[in-house]
Structures are given as C-alpha cells and as structure tokens.
Structure prediction request, 388 residues.
Amino acid sequence: MSLQKEIQLLTLSGPGIAVLLALIFYGLWSYQRTQGYLLLVSGAYFLYAVSLSMQILKLPADPGINAITTAALYLAGIILLCQGVLARHKKNTPYGLQLLISATVLVGLYYFYYIDANVVARIYVLNFGIGLTLLSCFIALNDLRRGKRIEQIFYWVFAAFTLNFFIRTPLTLLTAKGLTATEHFNSSIFWLALQISLLVFVILLALLIIIVALLDRIDLLRKERDEDSLTGCLNRRGFFTAVQHMAPDTSNQQRYILLADLDHFKKINDTYGHAVGDAVLRLFASTARKVLPAQDVMGRIGGEEFIFLLNSPCSAQKAIELANRLRLAISTAQCMTVSPPISITASFGLGPFYLPIDTAIQQADKFLYLAKNSGRNNVAVDPSLLES
Prediction:
C-alpha cells in the first residue's frame, strides 16, 4: 500500500473512531449523570472528529480559514478533555492560562499564513500550543502518581500524550523537506505520523477513561450497598465486610470493639417526630467522626445502635479514654432542629476485638447493657481490659 493510500485510510478512520467514542462517553453519561466529566470528554472527542473531518473535506475551502478554524476546534477539544479529566479528579481547570495559550496559537497561525507564509512554523505553533495546554492539565494531576493503579497508568499515558506533541513535531519535521504548502503538508510523513500517534492516544485514553468510569460506577454501587444513607456510616453489611479480614493482635489486643446506644431515643422520636430523630442520628455520627481517628471504622447496625472498631494501635487505657471522650462529646452536642435545642446522651460498651466478629460483638454488647442499666450516659468496660 502506498504512503498516499495509508494516509487516506488513517485520515478517514480518525473521525469515525472519534465519533464512536464520543457516543460511548455520551451513553455512559446518560446512564450515570452524576459523572458529569464524561459529557465533557464526549464533547472533546466530538470536536476532534469535526475538526479532522473539516480538514479532510476541506471545509471551508479557503486553506487559511480552514487552518485557523480547525485549529480552534482542536484547541477547544483539548480544553474540554482537560476539563473532563480534571473534573474527574476534583482539580481546578486553569481556564485563564489555557485560553491565553489558545489565543496565542490562533494569532500565530494567522501570522504565519497571511503575513509570513510558513507551514513549518504553523505546525510548531499548533502542536506546541496543544502540548502546553495539556501540560497545564498534567501538572495538576501530580497526585495521581500515588493514586490507584488505574490512576497511575492514566497519569503516565497522559504524560506520554503530552510529551508526544513536543517530541514528535521536531523529529518528524526533520524528514519533511520542502514542506512549504498546505497541500504538501496533508500528504507528508509528518501528517502520517501525526494521525498514527493521535489515533493511538485517542483510543488508549478513551479506554482508560471508560475503565475509570466503570470502576467509579462499581464503587458507587458498593457504597450504596454498604453505607447507611441517613448517617453516612457503614451499615451492618458494610461494617462486617470492612472488618472480617482484619486479624486480631492476640499478643496485646491493640484493637477494640465499642458499641454505642443512644439513650431514650424512642422517647425523642415519640415526642418530636422521626425527622428530629433522624437529625439526632446524624448529629451522633458527625460528632463521632470529629472525635475518633480516621482509621477507626464506624457503622450503624440498628435503629439507634452504632458500632466502632478502634483500629488504631493503642493500649486498653487509651481505648477507654477514647470511649469516654466520645461519650463526653455526645453529651455536650445539641440537636438544633427544634427549639429549644435537644441534648442527647449515649451509653457505651467496650471490649476486645477478635474473630469471629459476632462473638466479639456479643461480648461488648453485655457491657453496653450494663452501661444502660447503670444509669446510662457512661462507658462499661470488659474487666479483662482493666487488667491489661
């Protein structure tokens, strides 16, 4: 197959593949509209398809207008891609910098077509402009190097995609002798290298973004399955799943089970209604999050019953102190949903963590009931912890 035919085949396949990928991203967004970044990525691929099609079909026919118009669409697509990628990772898009780069590129293209006609200069301006736009996004993604495996892969592929515009351009232009007109450019070795590299990265980035989107969806379904929607704590299933593979330290029992039960919760519901009762449950959960270390696991396993795995290494005495700090924080918190505000208290039972988890919970539950039968708003502790 001749070079000219290879160029034609690759050129014609590009828009079709890009449109297909744009439709896939749009379909994924339609299915899960909370993933708004997918719509941005869909727009990026669609703009790439449109701009490439305009180059192929020579629309508009004037070469100068075509070069500037398609460049503007390429740059807009790259900005949308950056916005989508940064939105997925909750990073701010450097709009000002990217728009400045785009404006500079378009001015440069105009100059090197209408004032000082130079195809090679236009190639450098456009490709380096795209590279700088991608670089502004890549710098903001630095945290992905320490992220999940798929995020690390995406980070390095995006790095290669960015560097591609800086490295490929001078290397391929070394072989592009006599590149002085647009018609020569569209049948040059540079154009072939450009289309091959773009097609590879277009497909590879799309596959990675699709995988990330699907994994996000799986994580969301798992969260909905394992999380209590009212308090944001793990539900019973989620809590058991989180701790069932944690082996206890049998030598010094550095993990502990803490059960909590809100005092007089039924009375609160009966007096103020379920809306206030729900607010009290949320208040308890939010207060506990402020007191307990982040590595501790919290779950809601009953109407007003909560469970904690004190997972940070500590002595029994420190576990008791932590339980009492939580009790005190709960007793000083106030539910502001009604006027005057309601004060709440809770009773706690503390015991060692061991497997099977059901047995450890049953043991801690004995001391929870001891706390409630001893006047409530206190912590009852397994005597074995006092001896350690």
